[in-house]
Amino acid sequence: MKNTTHEIRQSFLNFFKTKGHIIIPSSSLIPKDDTTLLFTNAGMNQFKDFFLGQKNSTYSKIATVQRCLRTGGKHNDLDNVGYTEKHHTFFEMLGNFSFNDYFKLEAIQYAWELLTSQKWFNIPKNKLWISVYKDDNETYEIWKNIIKVPIEHIIKIGDKNNCQYNSENFWQMSDNGPCGPCTEIFYDYGNGSIDNITDFIENKTQRFLEIWNIVFIEFNRISKTNIIPLPNKSIDTGMGLERISSVLQNVRSNYNIDIFDTLIKKISKFSNLTNSNHISLKIIADHIRSSTYIIADGIKPSNEHRGYVLRRIIRRALRHGRKIGIKKIFFYKLAQDVAQVMGTSANFFKDKIYEIEKILKIEEIQFSKTLDVGLKILNKKLKHINNNILSGKIAFYLYDTFGFPVDLTEDICREKKIQIDYVNYKLFQQQQRSKSKSNTFYKNYNDDIIVNDICIFQGYKKNKITAKVKHIFVNKKPVLEICKNEHGIIFLDRTTFYSESGGQIGDTGQLYYKTAYFEVENTKKYGNTIGHIGKMNSGIIKLHDCVYSEINQERRTSIQNNHSATHLLHATLRKTLGNVVEQKGSLVTDTHLRFDFSFSGSITLPQIHEIEKIINNKIFNNIAIKTKEINLEDAKQQNAIALFHNQYRSVVRTVFIEDFSIELCKGTHATRTGNIGIFKIVSHRSVASGIKRIEAITGKMAIKHWHKQENQIQNISSILHTHPVDITEKIQKLIVQQKHLTCKLDKLKNKDNINQINKIIRCSYEIKGVKILIHKFYNHNYKELKEIVQQLQKKIEYAVIILINIVNNHFTMISGITKNLVNSITAKSIIDIVIQETHGNGGGKNDLAAVGTTDIKKLDIILKKITLWINRKLKNN
Ligand code: SER
């Protein structure tokens, strides 16, 4: 009879029940209280503490069917999946365990009975081979003498690299933890003896399939070099359910057992693939099982830790989906099939299947865009590869620009026997890290969102249409719906919203449907599609909903008027200043327009007025503004203004304002020049060498501008007590008056200074023919004191001048030395005395120096010190 996998699972448990074992459910894929493991990788994980003797098990004999994941650490089969017939990321492990109960003999007898007994799995004895650890004679003897396995079928396996316990027949859970020698049972797909033991060890022809591992847990590895014996001896066995199924179902590959057969058939339907043996089908089938189970155990795709492993698995599966021609979202639909084929093992998540699908679907939608873009570029690059090495730069570019993961690039390259230049990849990664650290503006709203879709812009003629919601992003992640108060980006199949481009800002407005209302705050381009950025003010908008797309028409009208005015300005500048004028930048908003252009000369006010006059005349003539799609060549012949170094399509949208302005443009425009109302330049200046900038306003904004100016003039004239028409005359009069007063004030000041100078001289004393002038001022002006010092320097032949200005608790000291004295005494050294005493700030030259400090209390002591010092200096001369 051909056993189903479900029956085999059940038989295993029944067998061990008959041997007095208690059946315990599988533990989660997320190990509990164990930081040494990312995921549960063996049946024994949940019993780790029992093995270590740290806890006592209620039962000494247990059997389980444990869900396991081998995607990292000591046991990693991720890269083997699809390439061998027996590896999986996720699999179920059948295991029996003894804690300080039976040991080697019974463990081996149970395994042999289950495998070979007619009542149970009934595998012919001669199809089984055994491996034992080289030093484990006890086990060897059991197989040989008690089980009676012929010695040709018992192979002793040694250590690798002469390193003790580094052997296929010494099992360890992880880098630390329970471990011990093991004996393994193999199924032989071939016949007869082997020529050499290496035929068995290397197993190049895949003749031998390892089906059961019986571990004699006797040790605890506490470090790389240290293994200690455990107080109790225990048994840990593990048999891969998929492998034993393949033997019992008489198929050579795990991927042909009933479970995978059903899954693979389902996947093939999405792909039109006729070859059900295709590697990609196996990979997808394996990965949907692991993804479903990982999510069922509570993990979500993310960029770190377990979430990242899950993300890698999903992404790899999606890539293989593309490889076999699946273009639509498909992966999430398989979760339901996994739940069905896995039978009782899936019972724990059957009621969560909708959530699992939702998580998978979001990840799939998000990554599909990245995948399509990345694959297209990578495949193109791989066509021109040298020496089978993909440059690190390309691998990094794919990751950095498109979010295409490097492990996926590696996966694709591996299939083509191409390697990635990781040295350079890391270099680019480092450069980018330091760049983004120093440039916080690097990330903008468009970052991280790649939407490979199109949106038809219907906003040239309409301001409101109905459209279908194609994608929704919240927090840069694709979601199925956006709810009240959430900020996000909505993508439609068509829209009336103009997206920020060619200088014209994005539209605002609303997307709504019944009570759902999304306020669009800005509109931007994302590849070939258009993102409506904003906030959900009420209700919910879901994917595929049909919504009204309605722009803020009043704002758009102002933007359009300014855009058409920009075209008039551009044409006028070329006519008045010459064809050297070339557009270098432009901004068109609802409030104003800004136009940067090449022009080296200066622009005079009469020229500005002339430009305004020409433009306003065109506005007054109320000319129709027409747009046409014409051939690029025709546009060139008509001297259409365009940035011809840009790449245009062969048919171009061209905006005509009669033949006065013909310009290639995708922006939105007024229907007639009269709509602009009025045009006013508000500023013109140079912004870079040879680049001028004009800022202008139109219509209502121009009126506002004039009102503001009028108010200002009104204010000025009321301050000046005059009529607005007399302002200029009045200001001129005031300027003359002010000049007159300044002159008078200077004269008075001079007179005052002379008085001061005389007073200082009168209070001075002399040492060896040198006049010492020390004088204190209160609340004086520093500049004036400096002038006094300078005048004294001119007036007296030999003098040391020290003027102090005291303001509250602060004083400033200015010291001047006459020219003839600077060789024997300097102003700077006098000031240095103050600095030393007070830590004040100051400095200067030999003939003039100054210092300021708040240490007013020390002033008299300092002055004493200075005079003593001057006396000494001059007397010693
Ligand atoms: N722990 C051993 C293994 O995983 C036996 O179950 O192979």
Automatic annotation (TrEMBL):
EC number: 6.1.1.7
Record's keyword terms, sorted: Aminoacyl-tRNA synthetase, ATP-binding, Cytoplasm, Ligase, Metal-binding, Nucleotide-binding, Protein biosynthesis, RNA-binding, tRNA-binding, Zinc
Coiled-coil portions: none
Ranges where the Alanyl-transfer RNA synthetases family profile domain occurs: 3-708
Any one Gene Ontology cellular component term annotated for this protein: cytosol
Family assignment from sequence similarity: Belongs to the class-II aminoacyl-tRNA synthetase family.
Record text about domains: Consists of three domains; the N-terminal catalytic domain, the editing domain and the C-terminal C-Ala domain. The editing domain removes incorrectly charged amino acids, while the C-Ala domain, along with tRNA(Ala), serves as a bridge to cooperatively bring together the editing and aminoacylation centers thus stimulating deacylation of misacylated tRNAs.
Protein name: Alanine--tRNA ligase
